[in-house]
Write the structure tokens for this entry.
Amino acid sequence: MDKKTQKYDRQLRLWHAHGQAALEQAKVCLLNGSAVGTETLKNLILPGIGSFTVVDGKPVAGSDVGNNFFLTVDCIGQSRAKCVTEMLRELNEEVAGYHVEEDPVDLVENKPDFFLQYSIIIATQLPESALLKLADICWDANIPLVVVRTYGFLAYARIVVPEHTIIETHPEQLLDLRFDVPFPALLEFAQSFDFEKTDSMAFSHIPYVVILLRCLEAWKKRHDGKLPSNRDERNQYKQSIRAMQRNDLPDAENFDEAYAAAHRAWTETKVPSPIRQMLDDAKADAITPKTPNFWIIARAVRDFVANEGRGLLPLAGAVPDMKSDTESYVKLQTLYRTKAREDCNLVRNRVTSLLASIDKPADAITTDEIERFCKFSSHLKVIRYRSLREEYTLNTARSHNIGQWLQDLDSEIIYYVLLRAVDAFYETHKRYPGFHNEEVETDIGLLKKCVTALLAEWQITSATVSDDHIHEMVRAGASEIHTVAALHGGVVSQEIIKLITSQYVPMDNTVVFNTIKSTSSVFVL
Amino acid sequence: MCDAMQTDNDVPDWEGRWRDVYTYLERSGPFAIDGFEPGDEVKEVLHTSKILVIGAGGLGCELLKDLALVGFRDIHVIDMDTIDISNLNRQFLFRSSDVGRPKAEVAAEFIMKRVPGVTVTPYYGKIQDKDDDYYSQFALIICGLDSVEARRWINATILRMCEENEEIKPIIDGGTEGFKGQSRVILPTHTACYECSLDMQTKPTTFPICTIANTPRLPEHCIEWASVIQWPKIFPGKKLDGDDPEHIKWLLDTALGRANQFNISGVTYTLTQGVVKNIIPAIASTNAIIAAACANEAFKIVTSCAGYLQNYMMYVGDQGVYTYTFSLEKKEECPVCGSTALKLEVNPEAKLQELIDILLDRREIQLKRPSLRTSSTSLYMQAPKMLEEQTRPNLEKKIGDLISDGEMITVTDVALPINMRLTVTFAK
């Protein structure tokens, strides 16, 4: 095993070689070398992203060295971008690191094209107006933007991207056994077992899939081809499984498995409705040279389902372990795998045709990707995030929901409200509330005014923000404590890894972490 | 140009160094713990408190960084391992040139070099090497361990010390696995301890021996066959070392042979290693979250500047961001921190061996080789050899002949750091 595979072994077990390849192609941009920003980058550099760039116009201050692991005392006065980049690069020699000594706000205002070269942007310490402009730039370019901030013991993150598609959501279980609609080879295999003549050792090793199928076929013969459809019938069906069980068996594990899985026999195999919606999505209608791979394959699957699939998705092909002799299990596994491959080949042909229709070669989409799509077709996910503009614009903001959530006194939404109020405070007073000890007392009243104004703007009358919360927010004094930055850097980096690898499911769309009570919530804002 | 300020202790602070931390130590607020007094005293407490970090691996490296940057200056760290190349994707205090060196020592070196004024005292060895005197010097202990056994040992040791000395030495415990993790605060004698929640551990995957021996179906079965059945046959007496690439290669080849015989696909080097070493996937991000959560609790507990976790947080990150925070209840019959004995009802006609089997089966006790005795006699003792031979015949005797109804039995076990009391009543 080569050194790189050895080094990355523990993470390859989570996202495999193709996930790692996606990471290694990623170009990550961090705006402002804050503590939470560098902590986030650390957790991306260690697993081996392609490159990172830190954009920061500020010089290193004493307080920066105090809360940031990637700065030392001799950096004070020097470019913060340059210093954190040097120390971050040192974490992993395979990762390229760059820095740009400019205020991100200037770039947002004057050089918006700058951001287009990156696969993902992490924004920290940006004032609201610049943030909204940046969000527009990223949205139009379809580049994911992650807004990250910590404030005292609070942490906040927001993912912004028009659409994120996931083939490998990594569900707990992948079961596609098709008891109710057995394909010919499967039925043939089930029929090949001679239940009468088998000795008890062999009988106790008949795979439960075969047992369930035989019982089901017998049932269908007696019931006009129909599946057990009500409680009585289902109980009768279950009894018929037990009736097949012989008394002379050394153990009845396979029959126990069949009994426990009986409900799978009468559950109709069909395209799950979220998947149905996805396949019918407009993005899969007109295939153009700009259509992402995901939607091209989706279209191919849609057409497969309507034709050769006869209303069903391509077979997943995976078979769980079960009590069985080796030969029967391997035969069963091969059956499912063969059918899955056949279905996948048909999808593959359709993909090739679609690619040809937009003048693209067949290998523009790899067979691996198509295979994964087919295997996980019943667990695909498409997330369409709300834009930051929608969140911040009054008539599209989810102010009604915020008002409702606020009524639960334990809800973390209160911290979102407080952060928005703090930003409003900054716009007015050009400083953060309670930054200096002397300001705390008066700022409590001033922040309260901002909160009241915000709630009024949102027309929230049925809930308030307690004085205690406002006091604590002023107490926080816009501090960035390293433990909170480190915690949040972990949370955010994980979301970014999910976005880059397109594996597992990122949150939609805002997470607020309260590290006093150690609780968190996700909100769609 | 920098403003270096020498304090009384000759610690090289500079202007603004503690700006963010002191924000919470110079002002009080409604969410501070009752009795919190902002000012110089609490800063002194933070900077002079002795903290012990157990483990210098995935969690340990993060813990040392977090504790140092939040203001702890006197940190001790114990770890019995040396650095391996597969650590480097997350244990960021180590570089490829450090492979083979003790983790505790390299971690201490790195932190002290990067963060001025912090003393990290490493110990390359087992936690069991240290005595009560050692552990009593710490205000708080944070565990970044990867074994249930080690956690049980430190939990029982500290619990016992706290009971004997009538003090509270908090234990903060963190654990991670892939995208999941948990952090918890244990206040000895007040909250649930680690032993109270043993049944929450995920059951390790085991394969039935008849499947391994006779009807393999999965590549894992073939690997288990190679390691559990063939290895002892071909190399009797030789210990299988999951870290030795030669051993893994042998297992891989042997497993492949078996797999080919049965037409099973999927045996790979990675899978072989994974099965033999029970490898748990690990990434920097989850470790960062859990370690920081633990260090954050330490900061709040030591300074009282804000309320702390009550008392268990679970984190799951593969589908969205999900945390579940709850208060784990203390178990009355917990062998370590409980006040009552575990009650068991048995058939007096059953043999003593069956009672032992029942105990071995219990998920919430997790015994390995239990020894049982009453106040007057030894029922079955696993060691020393003479005593084991003497008491072995008792295993076949009826329970009703050995003890009386309602009698108290004391159970000791290599897995159980203390004695467990058991009240046995006879089923009618």
Remarks:
- Chain B touches chain A through 84 residues (CB under 8 Å).
- The radius of gyration of chain B is 25 Å.
- Residues 412 and 419 of chain B are 5 Å apart (CA to CA).
